[in-house]
Amino acid sequence: MLLSLAIRDIVLIERLDIAFSGGLTVLTGETGAGKSILLDALSLALGGRGDAGLVRHGAAQGQVTAVFELSADHPVRTLLADNDVPDDGDLILRRVQTADGRTRAFVNDQTVSATLLRRIGAGLVEIHGQHDDRALVDPAQHRALLDAFGGLEHLATAVSGAFRDWRGAERALAELEGRIEAARREADYLRASVEELHALAPMPGEETELSEKRAVMMRGEKIASELAEAAEHLAGTGSPIPSLSSLMRRLERKGAEVGALLEEPLACLSAALDQLEEARAGFERALRESEFDPAVLEATEERLFKIRAASRKYDVASDDLSVLAVKMADDLSEIDAGEERLSELARTADAAKARYDALAAELSERRGETARHLETAVAAELPALKLERAQFIVTQTADPASRAAEGIDLIEFWVRTNPGTRPGPMMKVASGGELSRFLLALKVSLADKGSARRWCSTRSTPASAARWPRRSAPGSPGSARRCRYCR
After folding, report:
1. What are phi and psi of 143, to 5 degrees?
2. Bias regions of kind Low complexity — which residues (predicted)?
């Protein structure tokens, strides 16, 4: 049922909040009071055609929010689930109309298309006006009306669920078939690639680690060569140390002859020789302690270049090579084990299809029985409406191959206005007056199967209703009567 209606900046209404209670609600007012504005606002929230003229003068946009309470098995809940719309309790429909003519639709605060909102609205509210009998003359609603008349909603919900299960199983089967077929086409490439990547066995982060290690070793290589060159100059055949040492010894022997003349320079030369010797020893020690190993550098570079080449070859980041190897191996496994998995999914899909077919066939049979009951119920109402020669017909076209969430039936209400004439859809065959009376008879018949009844507690008896059978209304004064057409 409709719980509340909130209207903002629609036509003359700046702000209005209406809360509805159970039972019948009547909004009254003189002509021009704005009753039609409320219906226009509700129609907008239900997915009706938007119009910039609905926005209140001076406002940038108008908005209507309608809140509904639905039973757990209401058909609209299936529609919500089929379109991935959240469904956590009350249903909230919201429509925003901008002054430039654009509209936005929301269901439970999720953006939806106007088409989906219109489908949801059609399953919630039936608006009747002087020229507005939407659900009763709309073939798209006839199936739901027939199900409601026959109390088939639970079975229809089960059929819808079975349809979703079957389609889900079919999608899973098709997806696996597609993956296996693609894998088969690339089996040789996959097998060679998996072997290459497994032999390479790259690890996430390995390229960065190897690159840093290579940089360190290359810096070590440069330092080591310079250390070796320094050591060679100080300790090799061209070293100045031996010749300077020999020269200093000769000068020391001559020192006694020249006195203090060579004392200071000989001391400096001796100190220089000591420092050169220390430098030589230090360079040799540093060279020995250097960690650089050309063989290790070569191996590191070879590994690094292989990983980079594989990254370019497969067009993925080096850190993702291991993930790619796993995926390719899985694809190969699907080729090897795919037939078994395909058979399993095919059995699941077949079972889901069989369950759907059984439920849909049961629903179709029940609809056929219900159609005859509805025809009988409407036929009983027609004579009092001066349509005693007319016939109401429920057409049912069942096609087991045309599986849908609603079942396998196409249901449409037809009429024959006179014996010998060709029957056809109500809107095409019946005149305006005949259509109104057919709809009244249909509405009464449908109401007899529903939970909501409308009561007429009038003390007087209208002359126009005198010929219609009446019964005392339970719980009302004895003189109160229940009118057949006000139930």
Report:
1. -60, -45
2. 459-480
163 and 117 in a common domain: no
Q: How far apart are the first and last CA of the chain?
A: 18
Domain range enclosing 55: 1-124
Residue 214 falls within a domain, yes or no? yes
Alpha-carbon distance of 34 to 46, in angstroms, equals 19
pLDDT band at residue 421 under the 50/70/90 scheme:
confident
- CB-based contact 282:289 (threshold 8 Å): no
Instruction: Indicate the number of domains in the chain.
Output: 2
Per-residue b or e along 458-476, where b marks 16 or more CB atoms closer than 10 Å to that residue's CB: eeeeeeebeeeeeeebeee
Quick one: which H or E segment has residue 311? helix 294-314
Per-residue model confidence as pLDDT tens digits over 51-95: 998 999 999 999 999 999 998 888 898 889 889 899 888 999 999
Bridge partner list, 107: 93, 110
Nearest to 307 by CA among 319, 296, 297, 324: 319
CA distance to 235, 282, 285, 291, 293, per residue, from 288 (Å): 14, 10, 5, 8, 11
Q: Is the pLDDT of residue 470 over 70?
A: no
Are residues 279 and 184 both part of a single domain?
A: yes
Highest mean pLDDT among 95-104, 253-262, 316-325: 95-104
Measured torsion, CA atoms of residues 41, 46, 47, 52, in degrees rounded to the nearest 10: 10
In this structure, what DSSP letter does residue 361 have? H
Cα–Cα distances in Å, from 171 out to 44, 166, 335, 349, 385?
A: 36, 9, 19, 9, 52
Cα(409)–Cα(394) distance, rounded to whole angstroms?
12
- Candidates 344, 21, 331; CA nearest to 172 is 344
**427 part of a folded domain:** no
**CA distances in angstroms from 340 to 185, 345, 353, listed in the order given:** 19, 9, 20
3-class DSSP string for 28-86: CCCCCCCHHHHHHHHHHHCCCCCCHHHECCCCCEEEEEEEECCCCCCHHHHHHHHCCCC
pTM for this predicted structure = 0.50
What type of residue sits at position 83? Answer: N
Distance of alpha carbon 393 from the chain centroid? 41
Nearest to 400 by CA among 364, 372, 428: 364
Is the Cβ–Cβ distance between 300 and 213 less than 8 Å?
yes
H-run or E-run covering 269: helix 263-289
